[in-house]
Amino acid sequence: MADHAREDDDSALFTSSERHEIANENDGNLAARPHRDVAFKRAFATSLAVTILCGLLALSRVSADAHVLTEAETLNKYESCHAANGVGARRRTLLEDGADEDAATALTKARPYVVMAMLGACAMGALALTAFKRHPRFATWSMIYVKIGSCFALSIAFAIERMAFPCILFALFAAFFAYWMHATRDRVELVAKLLGAASTALKDNPHLITTSVFAGLAVIVSSIMFFTCVWGAYMNGSIAPSDYEHYTGGKCYYGEEVVPCCEWQTDSWVGPYVVFALLVWLWSHMIAAEMRTFVIGGSISRWYFAPAGTTAFVGTTREFIGHAFGASFGSLAFGGLVLTGVTILRNLNERLRRESRGFMAILACIVTAVMDCIAEIIETITKFATIQCAITGESLLESGREVTRLLKDNFLSALRVWWLPEMILNMTALFFAIFYGVVVGISVHVGVQVSTGDDDLAHNVGAIVGACAGVSSIVILSFLFSVLLTCIDAVFICYARDKDENMITKPEIVAIYDEVTEKTRAPDVAVAAAQRAQRPPPTARSDPGVVFQTPNAPMMYGRPDGNSLV
């Protein structure tokens, strides 16, 4: 507490003009920034160019009937890969269309319902974001109550359908979340204040949502491009006899099992290219995520360090988009490469945990738990370093070192509450999506059954619409909540820089984050006090009097009577 009091006293030494001067220096943006981490920018550009050029070349070499030769019906026919004399390969075309008329009818019937369900999901996402902007505390508690209510409603619905296991499972989920909400009310209040601070920043920077939407669309378009290249590469090959044992009655057998008589064999270069293209696609996806974090972090920092009373931030988002594609693109490529490695590590951990047996399964759980913790730490530091990079224009490594120092010196204990906003929002999005999908699916099922009288058609249409409603709602809610969480992280880094420089730029925001850091530091203070109480009494004593006197200054430090030396 003494440290905070000293910081508050020191902050009073800065005049208003000096604060604005330091704030502009912290913003570090108006002047042209030097290019950072250029090697990673060049490496990504080269990898992307190689992937696209090879993909275009692969697409140009695809034969007209390659898609027919890779279909299951063609591969099951013995004649597809055996000529009349038993050698060579021969191309065939399908004689009939295998489309399922019932499925086509269900898809046609479900199309308008799917559109309405997706529009409903968008409306709910916009409503949730508006609620957080205007009433953050009410919105936070409402999210928790919605999550608990959704679990109870799903439990009752499964009970009516006499499905015991899901009924009990969702009832346990609801009971657990209700108990957790009651036991951690203080922490939830902190989360509400954090979300309120982030919502204030987002309200003054509305174009961050628009930018994030366009970033998501860019990821979708680039994903289509990458997978088109992968598909074109896979189509470069030929049909050949499969590894079967004998051919009887128009079917091929491997032992007692019926297997395809033919198989599609890709060219030798396809495998390495597909692996390389998927890695570049994952790298691109992570760079897009880094860009969104960078733009949000930079825009929020401009808002945070702006002079008091500033409400217009025209051009801020555009400026940081320019930095993201310009001077700092190499740093973002570096960060994206780090996150790509973290993603691959997590996938390998999951595969190791799933495939291990016996004693190796126990060892795998221990190893993967440690590796998951390391991956989480790297991911968190990379995220904060990207925000720091947006604020200062430094390289990613320099930003990472500075962020690590800030957290280590001042606010490491505050990170204990940082998992709560993400957990509350993501779990709410998940359970609400399940609830929304089930309700929409059942409603459509009943409506189609009443209007057509066809129970099978109603079941198919309800399943399709319910699945699309659930997926669309979780995607939209998770996307909007991720923007809100990034705003929390960005404001936290600005607050950390403020405290590190003994400044109070936004008193209302500093008050919220001070409360978070103080309440999360309280357990550490209690533990330290308990440890001091358990220490044995000191044997060495010191006499009261002067301990140290400053030369040539009227100041000295003394020890009162009875105070111990150690």
Automatic annotation (TrEMBL):
Subcellular location: Cell membrane; Membrane
Chief localisation class: membrane
Transmembrane segments annotated in the record for this chain: 43-62, 113-131, 138-157, 163-181, 213-234, 273-291, 303-321, 327-348, 423-444, 464-496
Coiled coil: none
Membrane topology note: Multi-pass membrane protein
UniProt KW Transmembrane helix keyword: yes
Record keywords: Membrane, Transmembrane, Transmembrane helix
Function: Choline transporter.
Highest taxon listed in the record's lineage: Eukaryota
GO molecular function, one term: transmembrane transporter activity
Cited Pfam families: Choline_transpo (PF04515)
Family statement: Belongs to the CTL (choline transporter-like) family.
Protein's recorded name: Choline transporter-like protein
Entry GO terms, CC: plasma membrane
Taxon lineage: Eukaryota, Viridiplantae, Chlorophyta, Mamiellophyceae, Mamiellales
